[in-house]
């Protein structure tokens, strides 16, 4: 099997691995036998071997003979590097996106951000607002990446986004109601700058947002 950039990104076992981390069936830093992991992910032996190879290549697990598979536990350097890479991609994408942004995009994004803030206030339980917030975040950030019109960058960003979501498992309070609303307001500052055709203001707003999220992940 070729190991190109897109290899395995939609592999059922790869997707199931992230789902299991998110819903708590697996934990960061946990060690399990391959048979246990296969059962948790709902895989037979052959697909499990392929998934193990992929996860190990991605640095998401470490395979140790007679011990088992250890799920990675992000350290401060990993967290910082991940956020730095994300900021680099989104900053350049935003500069490109700002040249073609439409009034419809601005009005739609602003309205859904206002709506999600109201929703989080009315339903301040993470399990309730997690998916709606995730969708709003995705539509906001992916717009900048799509401005590259580059399949390889899109694949890299998809992998990066999955890892970013895992980082939030370290500090659940970093995505609690108050911090979630702060993030949405930071998004809206970028939207306002784009409406004003203030490209550098939008870039500064994005940089502030990413760094604030990093601070919340590391300190909350």
From TrEMBL:
Name this polypeptide is given: DNA-binding transcriptional regulator, GntR family
Residues making up the signal peptide according to the UniProt record: none
Domain GntR C-terminal, first and last residues per copy: 81-212
Domain named HTH gntR-type: residues: 13-71
Keywords: DNA-binding, Transcription, Transcription regulation
Pfam families named in the record: FCD, GntR
Native source species: Devosia enhydra
Cross-referenced InterPro entries: GntR_C, TF_FadR/GntR_C, Tscrpt_reg_HTH_GntR, WH-like_DNA-bd_sf, WH_DNA-bd_sf
Domain of life: Bacteria
GO MF terms, alphabetically ordered: DNA binding; DNA-binding transcription factor activity
């Amino acid at each position: 099997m070729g190991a190109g950039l897109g290899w395995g990104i939609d592999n059922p076992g790869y997707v199931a691995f992230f789902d299991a981390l998110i819903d708590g069936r697996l934990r960061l830093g946990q060690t399990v036998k391959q048979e246990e992991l296969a059962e948790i992910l709902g895989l037979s032996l052959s697909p499990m071997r392929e998934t193990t190879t992929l996860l190990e290549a991605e640095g998401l697990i470490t395979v140790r003979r007679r011990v088992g598979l250890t799920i990675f536990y992000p350290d401060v350097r990993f967290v910082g590097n991940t956020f730095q890479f994300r900021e680099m991609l989104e900053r350049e994408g935003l500069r490109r996106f700002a040249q073609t942004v439409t009034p419809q995009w601005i009005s739609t994004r602003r309205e859904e951000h206002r709506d999600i803030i109201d929703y989080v206030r009315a339903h301040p339980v993470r399990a309730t607002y997690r998916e709606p917030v995730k969708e709003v975040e995705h539509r906001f950030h992916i717009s900048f990446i799509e401005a590259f019109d580059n399949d390889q960058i899109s694949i890299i960003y998809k992998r990066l986004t999955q890892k970013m979501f895992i980082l939030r498992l370290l500090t659940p309070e970093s995505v609690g109601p108050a911090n979630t609303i702060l993030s949405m307001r930071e998004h809206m500052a970028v939207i306002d700058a784009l409406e004003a055709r203030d490209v550098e203001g939008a870039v500064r707003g994005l940089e502030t947002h990413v760094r604030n999220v990093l601070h919340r992940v590391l300190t909350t």
